[in-house]
Structures are given as structure tokens and as C-alpha cells.
Design a protein that fits this description.
- The complex is a heterodimer of chains A (296) and B (281).
- Chain A contains twelve helices and eight strands.
- Chain A is of the alpha/beta class.
- In chain A, helix 3 runs antiparallel to helix 5, helix 6 packs parallel to helix 7 and helix 10 packs parallel to helix 11.
- Chain A is elongated, with a radius of gyration of 21 Å.
- Chain A starts with a helix and ends with a helix.
- The model of chain A has no long low-confidence stretch (mean pLDDT 92).
- Chain B is α/β, with parallel strands linked by helices and 281 residues long.
- Chain B has an eight-stranded mixed sheet, sandwiched between helices.
- Chain B starts with 7 loop residues before the first helix and ends with a helix.
- The model of chain B has no long low-confidence stretch (mean pLDDT 95).
- Classes of the chains: A alpha/beta (296), B alpha/beta (281).
- Chains A and B meet through helix 2 and helix 7 of A and helix 1, helix 5 and helix 8 of B.
- Bound molecules: guanosine-5'-triphosphate (2 copies), potassium ion and magnesium ion (2 copies).
- One guanosine-5'-triphosphate sits at the interface of chains A and B.
Chain lengths: 296, 281
């Protein structure tokens, strides 16, 4: 993951590092190349523009032009800006002061919500927290069976009301059960939906009212393109999400979504999905990630 | 002002629109280049001219080479076989249901086969769709060799005198070597069992995908000869501009687009309409 982005940036940087002096045109050319690399990695157009503006201001300031090793100075600026674009600090899963901690999974169709619910359930259980999953996707064929199978695989019970279409009712009853069973964590899987689908977005708002979740995790496919920003904004505006999970990062996705989503929502990326199997979940460390992208 | 009649603002606006629709950098530069040339020659002057020029170029690219959306059937005896491939969660299984529905409505006897034996609930998902569509279904057990399922499906298709068999496959990232080999085996078994099969190998692509689509189609195409693309989730806000770069590089027709989650939500790809909508603000 991020390999291509990283290799390409390194290509630009090594050219710049070798020079003793950097003139303004050289810097501008370098910045143009960086811009292209970001766009080719699916960093959103607007986000790229804002990023470049910030880098350019710093890079064309006295600091770089007069620095002893200007190339190195430029790399440093890009690194700082990249880190702040990824979220500065690691943001762990929030646990509610009074259990159960309620986690809601939301996102577009096929982004990886159900699988990620299973992965988080596994993690919670291994951390000795009594966990339950709840099937609130009443639309997709066999969504309940999928969650039940994952529940069996990780040894976590799944609450479902097969045949019922009453999402809010299911959620309410599941929460009552969780409270009486003294669960520590309850993870609600929801159906995939478009951020422009008002009716279904409304359903999520009603769920949120009932559940008062500690976490609303927006799950996004790591291979998403320029739409990352519209989609993330749509979910965030409607639900005030608390965090982001980027899935399918075990492939060769260039990671532009990671750089874009935090940029527009300010909501931290909490996990990366790095496999179909239930152990394929990694905590997200912005600082480390920026370092990896820049091969430092 | 870069070019007469074309100020930097409008060129940048065009660039933003193209990048924003996921055309990618090379295709965007090519298309803005076309506009620049026209403006230099004084042929195109207004923003409207530029947009029209880009649209025409998109239509030209998508219409060149292989652009037929018709499905290829088996005319040599025996059933027609379609194999559906793609990365995780793009809409393969749903597209199969949609295709099965469409072909059933055309009066064909259709069978769908549960070649995804890996993902939790995948077999059950396809079974539910078969019930809704009202078509034949070949099941499987979790963990079974998908090539064996494909083999079974062809046997049963002959027995039951089915016209079209559509084989589902598990989602896999194109970078997963083992799983890609497994897919190659499914393809090979189909061809061994029935000459000319599969008659279509369709790669399903999620329209929200960015530049990774290039790597996906390249890798799948290297392992199993693709015959077309189905572009899903076009009911969302994504424009799917990447198909232009895909067409230039791989010359594969987009055969259908998915426009929703119901089995009726599949329509043949219309080049003119696509060019129109992809350039809408
Ligand atoms: N390689 C890989 N595949 C993943 C990852 N996360 C999920 N998947 C796969 O992506 C596909 C979709 O995952 P789901 O969990 O069903 O997605 P969803 O968001 O619940 O889908 P809907 O409920 O239909 O909206 C499945 O094939 C998963 O196995 C990941 O991190 N890596
Ligand atoms: N809005 C919309 N959703 C779609 C479309 N096609 C499929 N989906 C949804 O996308 C999600 C994933 O679809 P599937 O058909 O399960 O995808 P898949 O490629 O078979 O997934 P895996 O088998 O897990 O790799 C489901 O929630 C579908 O309802 C479409 O055209 N529009
Ligand atoms: K669209
Ligand atoms: Mg799901
Ligand atoms: Mg499937």
C-alpha cells in the first residue's frame, strides 16, 4: 500500500536533493511534479490544490531558497504537510464510560462494513470484552447470514430478526438485550447506501438517535477515486461520523483516499483493512504512514 | 492566457472537471490538449465549444475498436457460459442476478452457479437471487474448489437443457497471486468442458474506483481473457471517467452499467449518454 505514491514522490525528491541550490523555477517544477503524483494517487483535486498551496507558500519562502540543503528542506515541508493531512496523531477506538460501547458501521455499498464489523468484534473479544454484533442490514440478500457466519468464526453472538424490516426496532431490542446481558461492546452492521439516498440516510439518523453510539465508523474502499470527498462529506454531514476505516489496503491502492478523507472531514482514520480474513485489521498511525509514503 | 480564445481559467476548469470525474492525469492531459489545439486553430472559442469538443473526443475514443454491447452467445450447440470476475465488493453477484433476470425475461433458461465458496454468506446470497429471479441455481459448500463448482454447473446445465450459465466468483484483489491462479483454473476448466466457453468473461468495475481500475483490468485481463466491462453503482455521484483511459489502453467495451441494487437496475452502456453525463457539472 502507498508504494507507488511513495516511489514516485521519492523520484521527485531525489532529483531535488541532489542540487546544491534551488531556484524558484526549479521548486515550481518540483511542486508541479508532486501535484501530478498526488492526483495520480487519487488524492482529491480540491485537497491537492489546498495542499499544494500550503507547501508552495512554505517552499517559496526564504527558508528553502536560502537553506543549506534546500532539497532536504523541501522534503521536510512536504512531510509535515502530509502528516497533518493524515491526522497528526493516532486516534484509538473510543470506549464509552458506561458500557456497552456502541459502534455503528456505515458506508457505501460493498465498502467492507460487515467484514470490518467482524474484524473489530474479533479484536474486542481478544481484548477480553464481551461483544455482540447486530444485523441491521435488512435489505441485501443474505446479509444476516453473512454476519452470522462471521460471528461464528470469531465466537461472538449475533442478534438478528430475520424477515423483519424494522431496522430501528431491531436496534432498540438489541440494545436492551446487550444492556441486560452486560455486554461491553455492541457493533451494529448497517446496509450499504449512497450518501445521496435521503430515505436511507434518514434511517441512519434515526438509528443514531436510538443508539447514541460512541463510534460511528465510516467504512470506505481504499481504492476509491475522486468521489472519496463527496461521499465522506455526505456521511459526515448527516451523521457526524467519529472515525474512518479504509479497507482493501492489502492490494496496490495508492492511498489517495486516506489523504483526502481526513482533509475534508477532519475525522481520524482509525483502522486499515488489510485482508479478507478477520485478522486483517491494522491500527492507523498517521505519522508512520507519512514516513512510509516518503520512504523515511 | 495560454492560447488565443482560451484563458487559463477555463482550461483549469476543464482539467478540474476531468480529474474530478476520475479520467486520470494522462487522459485529462490528452483531452485538454485536444481543446487547446482547437482553440489555437480558432475552431473552438467558448466554454461551450470546449465542452462539446471534449464530449466528441470521448465518444470517438469509446466508439473506436471494440464497442459492441451485445452479449456473445454460443451458436455451436450446448449452453452459453458467462464468467464474472472482479475485485471485492464491486457488485459481481448482484450483476449476475441482473443479467439472469434480463436473459430470463428474454425467454432464455438461465442457471447461476455459486463459484464464490469463500466469502461468508456468498452462496446464500446467490441462492436468494436465484429464487427472486426464478432461475436455476447450482449451489456449493463453503471452501469447495470453485473450479469444481464450475464443472458441476456445466454438467447440470446440459442435463437441465439450460441456455445460459453464469458463474459467480469470489472477489479477489488483482495482487493476490494464489487467488488469481485459482481464477485462471476456473476459466480453464470451463474451456475444457465446453469448447469456446466462457463466451463472455466480464470484469465488474465499481464506478467509484479511481486509478486502481487500470491495474485491476490489466491484471485480470492477463490471467483470463476479458471480453467486456460492467460498470456498477452509476446511480451514485461517481462519474466513472476511468473507462475512457481503460478503453484506450485495453480496448474492452463497457457492456452494461449498474444503476441500483434491484435486479432491474442494469442497462446497456450508451456511449453518447455517458459522454453527456460524465461532463455534467
Ligand atoms: N482484500 C480485502 N477485502 C476486503 C477487505 N474488507 C472487506 N473485503 C471484502 O470486500 C467485500 C465486501 O465486503 P463486505 O464486508 O461485504 O462489505 P459491506 O460494506 O458490508 O457490503 P454491503 O453490505 O453490500 O454494503 C467482501 O468480498 C470482503 O471480503 C479488506 O480489507 N481487504
Ligand atoms: N447503488 C448500487 N449498489 C450496487 C450496484 N451493484 C451492486 N450494488 C451493491 O453493492 C454491494 C456489493 O454487491 P455484490 O454483488 O455483493 O458485490 P460482489 O462483487 O459480488 O462482492 P464480493 O463477492 O464480496 O466480492 C451490495 O450491497 C449491492 O447491493 C449498483 O449498480 N448500484
Ligand atoms: K453517476
Ligand atoms: Mg454488509
Ligand atoms: Mg459476490
Amino acid at each position: 500500500m502507498f508504494d507507488q505514491l511513495s516511489d514516485k514522490l521519492e523520484g521527485v525528491f531525489s532529483g531535488l536533493r541532489q542540487r546544491g541550490v534551488l531556484t524558484e523555477p526549479m521548486i515550481r517544477e518540483g511542486l508541479r511534479e508532486i501535484r501530478r503524483v498526488l492526483l495520480e494517487a487519487d488524492v482529491n483535486f480540491q485537497v491537492t490544490r489546498d495542499f499544494m498551496k500550503r507547501v508552495e507558500e512554505k517552499a517559496l519562502g526564504e527558508r528553502v531558497l536560502k537553506a543549506v540543503s534546500p532539497g532536504q528542506q523541501l522534503v521536510k515541508i512536504v512531510h509535515e504537510e502530509l502528516t497533518s493531512m493524515l491526522g497528526e496523531r493516532r486516534s484509538p477506538l473510543a470506549l464509552a464510560p458506561i458500557p456497552p460501547t456502541v459502534i455503528m458501521m456505515v458506508g457505501l455499498q460493498g465498502s467492507g462494513k460487515t467484514t470490518t464489523a467482524g474484524k473489530i468484534a474479533r479484536k474486542m473479544k481478544r481484548e477480553m470484552r464481551q461483544t455482540r454484533m447486530v444485523a441491521c442490514d435488512v435489505y441485501r440478500p443474505a446479509a444476516v447470514e453473512q454476519l452470522q457466519t462471521l460471528g461464528e468464526q470469531v465466537g461472538v453472538p449475533v442478534y438478528a430478526e430475520p424477515g423483519s424490516q424494522d431496522v430501528v426496532g431491531i436496534a432498540r431490542r438489541a440494545l436492551e438485550l446487550a444492556q441486560s446481558e452486560r455486554d461491553r461492546v455492541v457493533i451494529f452492521d448497517t446496509a450499504g447506501r449512497l450518501q445521496i439516498d435521503e430515505q436511507l440516510m434518514d434511517e441512519l439518523k434515526r438509528l443514531k438517535e436510538v443508539l447514541k453510539p460512541a463510534e460511528i465508523l465510516f467504512v470506505a474502499d481504499g481504492m476509491i477515486g475522486q468521489e472519496s470527498v463527496n461521499v465522506a462529506k455526505g456521511f459526515d454531514d448527516a451523521l457526524d461520523i467519529t472515525g474512518v476505516v479504509l479497507t482493501k489496503m492489502d492490494g496496490d491502492a495508492r492511498g489517495g483516499a486516506a489523504l483526502s478523507i481526513y482533509g475534508v472531514t477532519g475525522k481520524p482514520i482509525k483502522f486499515l483493512g488489510v485482508g479478507e480474513k478477520l485478522d486483517g485489521l491494522e491500527e492507523f498511525h498517521p505519522e508512520r504512514m507519512a514516513g512510509r509514503i516518503l520512504q523515511q | 492566457v495560454l492560447v488565443k480564445g482560451l484563458d487559463e481559467g477555463s482550461l483549469e476548469g476543464l482539467e478540474e472537471q476531468l480529474i474530478g470525474a476520475d479520467f486520470g492525469v494522462p487522459a485529462t492531459l490528452r483531452l485538454t490538449g485536444v481543446v487547446e489545439t482547437l482553440a489555437e486553430r480558432g475552431v473552438a472559442r467558448s466554454q461551450r465549444d470546449f465542452l462539446r469538443a471534449v464530449r466528441e473526443e470521448i465518444v470517438a475514443i469509446l466508439s473506436a475498436g471494440r464497442s459492441d454491447t451485445a452479449l456473445r452467445f454460443n451458436y455451436e450447440g450446448g449452453p452459453t457460459v458467462f464468467l464474472i470476475v472482479g475485485v471485492n465488493g464491486v457488485g459481481k453477484t448482484t450483476t449476475i442476478a441482473k443479467l439472469a433476470h434480463r436473459l430470463t425475461r428474454q425467454g432464455r433458461r438461465v442457471m447461476i452457479a455459486a463459484g464464490d465458496t469463500f466469502r461468508a454468506g456468498a452462496i446464500e446470497q446467490l441462492r436468494r437471487w436465484a429464487e427472486r429471479v426464478g432461475c436455476e441455481f447450482v449451489g456449493s459448500e463453503p471452501g469447495r474448489d470453485p473450479a469444481a463448482v464450475a464443472f458441476d454447473a456445466l454438467e447440470q446445465a446440459r442435463e437441465k437443457n439450460v441456455d445460459v450459465v453464469i458463474v459467480d466468483t469470489a472477489g479477489r484483489l488483482h495482487t493476490q497471486g494464489d487467488l488469481m491462479k485459482e481464477l485462471e483454473k476456473v476459466h480453464r476448466v470451463l474451456g475444457k468442458k465446453l469448447d469456446g466457453a466462457p463466451h463472455e468473461t466480464l470484469a465488474v468495475l465499481d464506478s467509484t474506483t479511481g486509478q486502481n481500475a487500470m491495474a485491476q483490468i490489466r491484471s485480470f485481463g492477463q490471467l483470463v481473457p476479458l471480453t467486456g466491462i460492467v460498470l456498477t453503482k452509476m446511480d451514485g455521484t461517481a462519474k466513472g471517467g476511468i473507462v475512457v483511459a481503460l478503453k484506450e489502453e485495453f480496448d474492452l467495451p463497457v457492456k452494461f452499467i449498474g444503476v441500483g441494487e434491484k435486479m432491474t437496475d442494469l442497462v446497456p452502456f450508451e456511449i453518447e449518454q455517458f459522454a453527456e453525463e460524465v461532463m455534467e457539472a
